[in-house]
Amino acid sequence: MFSTSLFEKHLATSWLGRSFYFFEELPSTNSHAKKMERKSSLHGVLVLTDFQSGGRGQHNRKWVVEPEQNLTFSLVFEPAKANRLNLLTLTCALAIKEVLENEAGINGILKWPNDVLVKEKKICGILTETVFIGNQLDRIVAGIGLNINQLRFSDEIKHNATSVSIESGEETEREELLAKLLQRIEFRYRQWVQQNQELVREINQSIRGVGKWCSLQVNDEVLKEKYKFLGVNESGELLAMDENLDVRKYSYEQVRVIEHL
Question: Could you read off the pLDDT of 156-165 as tens digits, one per residue?
């Protein structure tokens, strides 16, 4: 069972996660965070569960985890504008990659648009969603699923998934790791708000396939042309250069990168 008191002991953020809600079981932390009633600001709220029974990934794919083994949580942000959401997802992914390297000695890489991979296997997925009231942004919810102490996965994903314990060879204290994650995400979020160019550069240095020729799948159709993957811009759009040296921009809803390694 996740220890909330131990988590609070380790937490060293200024605002992120200072207000949090823990559930032994929840269908979806994102769904819960999106429906939370507002009595005051929800900025920085953490919704955490020890077992997410109906987790969702991109395109409504299921995110299945074992109870009491991993970290499944959502963070609520209230930025002034609803733009650059793609970049916010990658900002969170970068922070997670950094903590895995610094705290567990695990070298990860970002996969466009919302995953962290280790040795070509998925260790973390992020689902970023928005809540609007009319035309006004109410909140952004970033749902994060990070495999920690799970050692076995279903036949469907066992060849494509890994965890911190599998890679490090030892069990990990989830409470301290979550506190470290929030501290790093808070730092990177501040850079995101400030539109820090160094943040964009560091994200691009960490994305799988940057600088390589690839195919693009746009709206479920694989394009015939080959493109060089250039990374993302300050808006979080994917940049790809065609063989005529023209650069095209895509949002993550539109495009998938099919690499040729």
Answer: 888 999 999 9
Output the pTM of the full model: 0.94
Q: Give the distance, in angstroms, between the CA of residue 46 and the centroid of all CA atoms in the same chain.
A: 14
Q: Please tell me what DSSP assigns to residue 161.
A: B
Give CA–CA dist 83/140, Å, rounded: 11
Phi and psi (nearest 5°) for 19?
-110, 120
pLDDT above 80: residue 94: yes
Tell me how far apart the alpha carbons of residues 1 and 51 are, in angstroms, rounded to a whole number. Answer: 10
Dump pLDDT digits (tens) for 42-61. 999 999 999 998 765 544 55
In this structure, are residues 227 and 241 in contact, taking their beta carbons and an 8 Å threshold?
yes
| Helix, strand, coil percentages in the chain from 3-state DSSP, rounded to 5 | 30, 30, 40
228-240 tens-digit pLDDT: 999 999 999 999 9
How many Cβ atoms from other residues are within 10 Å of residue 1's Cβ?
Answer: 8
Phi, psi of 255 (to 5 degrees): -130, 145
Tokens of 206: 């960490």
**Token pair recorded at residue 14:** 């200024």
Tokens of 122: 């998925």
